[in-house]
Write a structure and sequence with these properties.
This protein is an alpha+beta fold. Helices cover 58% and strands 8% of the residues. The protein has 15 helices and 7 strands.
Length: 446
């Protein structure tokens, strides 16, 4: 998610990981944190503290803590993990003054850090800040419906929670909570975009599954708020269903995490091999075609040594994204390990495999990645093999493609090669022997 734009000095370990982040990301996180602190001070001066509000806040924070403990027992997948903590954010937004929306993420994310999974401190702080700001603004909008003015809404309108007893109030609560979700997602997406840089494709934050989870979280959160408005004791019957939903959600995420590579989001090697083997077997049984490509980043160790491993991770993600954008929906892409990627092209013959490989090589070579505004060129070498010509199963095809990749690296890198030709072999139209280094000229084929 983050990238170091400043090369690390050899033999020195940075004391503050946040200083390794892009300057724009540090400024962005600092601005959000300052905004949250300012709003906290302003709302604290305008809010009257009542015992009933403190009791409700502690009760909702305790329920959120129970969910965090359940998350810890099941395990937390890395990356953009979806959760149902909004079931406890939303009641705070709707039942308490906006000040408490800024406060409630603090104990919850602190508990996540200490009990569930340790993460970089600045990421936890940013996530808590994003949730707090989103909740504060949504809560102010909710209280404005019954407040005399903006300042009264910031301090919290006592009669606001009574709106949950009417159909119109429930509809307004849904709108405010939906705005909370949208704003929080936008804040996170902006951070990811700034961290990735202008030259990389943005990773989608919303898809069908994410929208479904957000809708469920919204419904559950508003329902919990209605129950808590009637009586805090009713939270006892709300916790078990939320835990069950959270468990089913995390179980699916853990299954997905077991199939994917954490740094690129692509299929990991065992999963890719399993699915590719099945696809090749189907192609052979129907006398169809299939091709395998092995894509290797040139001089990747040099990239890590010169610019740091965080930049190397960003290069991996950028190459993975670029390759994925050039493939068909039916193609199978995975990370094979280290700096290597593997692609299965169902239905591709030798010419189509070479054209696809050349397209990937060209697109990766045009990527825009920079360290402190100094562009760094990234190239790849590609080895290709076609079922029926260079092998009959996945093992044979990977072996042939690996040998072709070795030839590409030995003959200058930044090029595409196929297995060496046997006597009487054919050539791809437009192919020529040799060629200047770095132009992607393929070798002979069998």
């Amino acid at each position: 998610m983050s990238i170091s734009e400043k090369p690390l000095a050899v033999g020195r370990r940075p004391q503050w990981p946040v200083l390794q982040q892009p300057r724009g990301l540090v400024v962005y996180m600092g601005m959000l944190l300052c905004a949250a602190l300012f709003l906290f001070g302003a709302s604290a001066a305008l809010t009257s503290v009542h015992l009933s509000d403190l009791v409700a806040f502690l009760a909702l924070a305790l329920c959120a803590g129970i969910c965090v403990e359940a998350i810890r027992r099941l395990g937390v997948p890395a990356g953009f993990a979806r959760d149902l903590l909004g079931a406890w954010w939303f009641p705070v937004v709707l039942l308490l003054p906006p000040l408490y929306s800024l406060l409630v993420p603090v104990p919850v994310f602190l508990l996540l850090q200490l009990r569930a999974r340790r993460a970089l401190a600045h990421r936890r702080v940013f996530n808590a800040t994003a949730v707090g700001l989103s909740g504060f603004l949504a809560s102010v909008a909710w209280h404005l419906a019954t407040a005399d003015g903006l300042w009264d809404a910031v301090g919290g309108a006592p009669e606001a929670q009574e709106q949950l007893g009417t159909a119109g109030g429930v509809l307004l609560a849904v709108v405010c909570c939906a705005a909370f979700t949208a704003l929080n997602t936008v804040l996170v997406a902006l951070a990811v975009r700034i961290s990735a840089g202008a030259g990389s494709a943005p990773r989608p934050m919303w898809d069908r599954e994410a929208c479904t989870v957000d809708a469920v979280e919204l419904c559950v959160g508003v329902t919990v708020a209605v129950l808590a408005q009637l009586s805090l004791f009713l939270l006892a019957i709300a916790v078990p269903p939320v835990l069950l939903l959270q468990r089913s959600l995390l179980f699916q995420q853990l299954r997905t995490a077991a199939r994917t590579d954490p740094k690129t989001g692509l299929l990991n090697a065992p999963t890719w091999e399993q699915e590719a083997s099945a696809e090749i077997a189907r192609a052979r049984s129907s006398r169809g075609r299939a091709a395998v490509l092995i894509v290797d980043i040139d001089h990747f160790k040099r990239v890590n040594d010169n610019h740091g491993h965080l930049f190397g991770d960003q290069v991996l993600l950028g190459v993975a994204t670029t390759i994925a954008q050039q493939l068909r929906q039916s193609d199978l892409l995975g990370r094979f390990g280290g700096e290597e990627f593997v692609v299965l092209l169902p239905g591709a013959d030798t010419a189509e495999a070479w054209q696809a490989a050349e397209r990937l090589r060209s697109q990766v070579g045009s990527m825009q990645i920079a360290v402190e505004e100094v562009p760094v060129s990234i190239t790849v070498s590609v080895g290709a093999a076609v079922a029926g010509e260079h092998g009959n199963d996945l093992v044979e095809l990977l072996t042939a493609a690996d040998l072709a990749l070795y030839r590409a690296k030995e003959t200058g890198r930044n090029r595409v090669c196929l297995p060496a030709a046997r006597q009487g072999g054919t050539r791809i139209p437009g192919q020529r022997e040799g060629g200047p280094s770095g132009r992607g000229v393929p070798g002979q084929i069998g």
